[in-house]
Each structure stands twice: as C-alpha cells, then as structure tokens.
Write a structure and sequence with these properties.
Layout: E1 7-9, E2 31-32, E3 39-51, E4 56-67, E5 72-78, E6 83-86, H1 91-98, E7 103-113, E8 125-130, E9 141-149, E10 152-159, H2 167-180, H3 187-198, E11 202-208, E12 224-227, E13 231-236, E14 241-242, E15 262-268, E16 272-276, E17 286-292, H4 295-304, E18 311-312, E19 315-316, E20 327-333, E21 344-348, E22 360-370, H5 373-397
Parallel strand pairs: 1-5, 3-15, 7-22
Antiparallel strand pairs: 1-2, 3-4, 4-12, 4-13, 5-11, 6-13, 8-22, 9-10, 10-11, 14-21, 15-20, 16-21, 17-20, 18-19
Length: 398
C-alpha cells in the first residue's frame, strides 16, 4: 500500500490536534510531518455530556487547524469502542450563548450647571456604548470500524492480546500498522501508545480526508486555516475524562510559535471539577461559568450534539432526554506549556455554587442641566430687593 503524504498530529484529548512542542505557546503534543509540512491547532472546543446512571460519556470536539498541507491526522484514545457521528456546526455557538456574560443596562446621569440666561432650555444628549464491519485481527492489531465522518476518514483500532505480549510490543505493532497506512511514526508515539495497549483501550485514528485526486492537487502555498466539523464519540467509562495526555516532545524539534486555547463544556447532574490524573499535579483549566441551563437550551444542546446510544454489553444505553437537574460547567485552559502527562478526569465539585462571567455593562449617558443655588439667589433675590426698595420708597413718600 502506498503511503499517503500527510502529517500526523497525535492529539491528547479526545483528538485534541496539537502543535509542535513550544514552551512559549503551551503546545505540548508532537507533530510528525512529511516533506516539511506542519500543522497547528489554532483553537479547540469540546463538549462532554456525562450520564452517571449509565456510565456513558458523550464527547464532542471541534477544532480549527493551521497547516501548510492539505492532509493530516490525529489519534484519540477511549476505554472501549466508541460510537461515532458528526455533530452540528451550531452546537458550540449555542453553548457559548448559554455561558455568555449577562448584559446590564445602566443609565448614567451627569448634571451640569445651567447657563445664566433667562429662558434657556437644556439640550438633552445621550449615547450608548458597550463597554463498519469488524475485520479479523492481523499481527495483533484489530480494525473495529472504518468510516467517513464529516471531514475525516476514521479507523477504530484495538490491540488483540496474546500470550507473551507486552505493552511495548503491542505499541510497536500499532505503530507499524499506522506507518503502513500512511501515518508518521516515532519512538515518542510508540511510548504514548504503550499505556493504552496495557490498559486495553481503543485508539481511533482520524485523518483529514485528502482530495479525490491527490496527485493533481498541490499543497497550498503557505499556511492556511481549516475548520473541521465537530465529531461526537460516545463510549462507556468509569469516570468522565478529557483525553489530555500527549507524547513527549521530540528532541531537537523547534517551537511553532503558535498559541492554542482549549475550552471544555461539561454537562452533568450538578457542577463538576477537573483534575489532572490522580490530582497530584494541578490542571491549569479554570472554571469560568457554571450553572443550571434552561430546559429549552438543553434540548437544543442534546439534539445538536447528536447524542445517541453507546453499546453496553450488546445493549443500547439510553441518552439523556430531560434537562431536570443538569448543569453546564465551562473550563478554559490557556496553559503554556500544557502539562499533558495524563488525562483530565472530572468529578462532582465540592462547591456547587453557580459561577458567572463578569457582566457587560451597557451605559446610556444623559446630561441634564440644573440650576445652582447662586442662580436661584439671582432669580429670586434681585426681584425681592427691587420690590422691597419700591415699597420702602412708597412709605417714604407717604
């Protein structure tokens, strides 16, 4: 089989496509490229819907990439075979609307002294501003599914254990399978894979679909942006997690100079908190919003995420239908570098109070004229003196 000419991005998080290691930008994943091509993640967002009753995680991820080529890929680990589908492009816009800061409208009145002129009316001014089928095992690597989803060609892989197999040996066979099918391979990727072979996890390989006639399509000149469609993965898990772990940096790889921003929306029964691995090292993700959503909003989120049943012992698992008791928690990770040494696991937060962004204050300024006391003295004092003087003169003549 001919090797595709494309770059492989081994991503942490359920497919978090990464950039070259960069201490300045927080990009800690390894990129392997053909012919000098490179690819970086410009922005990434994820939605995790956790059904505690059925131990089912629905994971939806969207990313925008900046690349010098037109084809590349990434790997996503899950505890078992995921159910895959493409989600709606509008999903993350709806989530951002739910957690957007509230708009508070205030009127600011400024008083100015009226000019000393009889019959002068004040001019009011105002303005506003805003502050497929399963294939038999081959060399220990089992292809569970292959399909096209959105912009991706997807292959779900598992390692078929036999007597005498080691995690390192299984990772080597997985790496050989990936290399045979066009993915770049390195010692860092083999080491990254070994943990998932040991834990008997599945690896889903995503490949940005290449042009129909790649030999007639030249890679774009310079870097270009690509917005891939969001993909939903549903699978069983003992506890919800974001696949955050990344391969170790390759020696001698130069930093990309590109920054990366991760936003995670977490939907569950109550507010949740995230921790890196066993919690011995802090996850830099910050809670920026948490609260119960309106039922109408949840209905739209579940629908656009295309939540569907994940297999459980051959039987379907019911997806969440009602919004009663559901909370949405939003996390932002701007770390540099990103500590991708383990997955990010979520559990109920000890603090169940809501969190909101600072409101956006929209002020309407209105200027009004007021009459100062000295003007009152003039307006009333002078006439009073004149009247008094006239009265006095009259008595003097009388």
């Amino acid at each position: 089989m001919n090797r595709f000419s494309f770059a492989l991005v081994v991503a942490l998080a359920a497919g978090a496509l990464a950039a070259v290691p960069d201490d300045a930008t927080g990009c800690a994943a390894v990129v392997h490229l053909h012919n000098g091509q490179r690819v970086d993640t410009a922005d990434e967002s994820a939605l995790i819907v956790w059904d505690e009753k059925t131990k089912t995680e629905h994971f939806v991820r969207r990313a925008s990439f900046r690349s010098t080529g037109y084809d590349f890929g990434f790997l996503v680990p899950t505890p078992n075979r995921p159910h895959l589908d493409v989600a709606s492009d509008d999903l993350f816009g709806d989530l951002a609307t739910i957690t957007a800061p509230k708009v508070e409208r205030r009127e600011v009145v400024t008083e100015v002294e009226r000019e000393f002129s009889l019959g002068c009316a004040a001019e009011k001014k105002s303005f506003m501003y805003v502050g497929s089928a399963v294939k038999p095992p081959s060399d220990g690597v089992q292809v569970l599914e292959q399909k096209r989803i959105g912009n991706y060609d997807v292959t779900v892989l598992a390692f078929h254990h036999s007597d005498g197999d080691t995690p390192e040996g299984g990772a080597r066979l997985l790496g050989e399978w990936l290399a045979k099918h066009g993915y770049e391979r390195s010692p860092a990727i083999d080491k990254w894979l070994a943990k998932y072979v040991r834990d008997q996890w599945c690896i889903t390989a995503f490949k940005i679909a290449a042009p129909d006639k790649p030999n007639e399509t030249k890679p774009p000149a310079g870097r270009h942006d690509l917005q891939a469609k969001p993909v939903r993965m549903s699978f069983r898990a003992e506890k919800p997690f974001y696949p955050y772990r990344e391969p170790e940096p390759e020696p001698g790889v130069q930093p990309s100079g590109e920054s990366r921003f991760l936003r995670v929306f977490f939907a569950a029964q109550g507010r949740y908190a995230g921790q890196l691995g066993d919690g011995s090292k802090a996850w830099p993700g910050q809670t920026v919003w948490a609260g119960p959503g309106e039922e109408a909003s949840w209905a739209g989120v579940f629908q656009k995420a295309k939540l569907s049943d994940a297999p459980k012992d051959g039987k379907p698992v019911a997806s969440p239908k009602a919004a009663d008791g559901w909370w949405l928690t939003e996390f932002e990770d701007r770390s540099s570098p990103r500590p991708g040494i383990d997955e990010v696991y979520f559990e109920p937060s000890a603090d169940q109070s809501p969190v909101a962004r600072a409101p956006i204050i929209v002020e309407t300024a209105r200027t009004v004229e007021v009459t100062p006391w000295r003007h009152v003295a003039v307006y009333f004092g002078v006439p009073a003196v004149l009247v008094g003087f006239l009265v006095w003169r009259r008595f003097q003549r009388g």
